């Protein structure tokens, strides 16, 4: 066998065997091999850490997770009547937008530009038909217009159930 870098020199199998046995006998070369293998070094370090007992006066290990107890997170099923009332009180002052809708229609831009003062726009709602009452844009009831002391109002005649709300959205 020849060394590709030195074609003039013949290398025998005995030379390879001698080199291998020399490497096995020399402990300094084994240390270099261990330093080059980071996994072996990490495994050795872990084994050494596991063998040493933890000191009892050391601070507790914060890397392990602790179970959450009831004093940190209260159970959802244990909500009392007073807690429910308090939760409702928190939302009582939130403003909502109430809208009463007489009817709707669709116009083209040409028709919109032709509107002038005194123009009449035909709506799809019929006279005497209940008007839609919307809260924040969602239909919640229907009612009829009333006039009290020269001001308009609406009398609720029907509360819309959730199934009826879905049906009315499709029109």
TrEMBL record:
Gene3D superfamilies: SpoA-like. Residues 90-160 form the Flagellar motor switch protein FliN-like C-terminal domain. Keywords: Bacterial flagellum, Cell membrane, Cell projection, Chemotaxis, Cilium, Flagellar rotation, Flagellum, Membrane. It holds the Pfam family FliMN_C. Residues 1-69 are annotated as: Disordered. Residues 39-60 have a biased composition (Low complexity). It is a peripheral membrane protein. It is found in: Cell membrane; Bacterial flagellum basal body. Its main location: membrane. The keyword Cell membrane applies. Coiled coil: none annotated. It comes from the Bacteria. FliN is one of three proteins (FliG, FliN, FliM) that form the rotor-mounted switch complex (C ring), located at the base of the basal body. This complex interacts with the CheY and CheZ chemotaxis proteins, in addition to contacting components of the motor that determine the direction of flagellar rotation. PANTHER family: FLAGELLAR MOTOR SWITCH PROTEIN FLIN (PTHR43484:SF1), PTHR43484. Belongs to the FliN/MopA/SpaO family. This is Flagellar motor switch protein FliN.
């Amino acid at each position: 066998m020849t060394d590709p870098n030195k074609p003039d020199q013949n290398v025998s199998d005995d030379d390879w065997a001698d080199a291998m046995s020399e490497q096995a006998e020399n402990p300094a070369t084994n240390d270099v091999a261990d330093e080059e293998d980071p996994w072996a070094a990490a495994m050795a370090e872990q084994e050494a850490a596991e063998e040493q007992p933890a000191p009892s006066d050391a601070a507790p290990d914060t890397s392990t997770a602790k179970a959450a107890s009831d004093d940190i997170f209260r159970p959802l099923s244990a909500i009392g009547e007073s807690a429910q009332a308090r939760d409702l009180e928190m939302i009582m002052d939130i403003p909502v937008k109430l809208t009463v809708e007489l009817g709707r229609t669709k116009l083209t831009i040409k028709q919109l530009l032709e509107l002038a003062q005194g123009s009449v726009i035909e709506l799809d709602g019929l006279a005497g038909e209940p008007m839609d009452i919307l809260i924040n844009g969602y239909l919640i009831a229907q009612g009829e217009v009333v006039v009290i002391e020269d001001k308009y109002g609406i009398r609720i005649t029907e509360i819309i159930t959730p199934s009826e709300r879905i049906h009315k959205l499709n029109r």
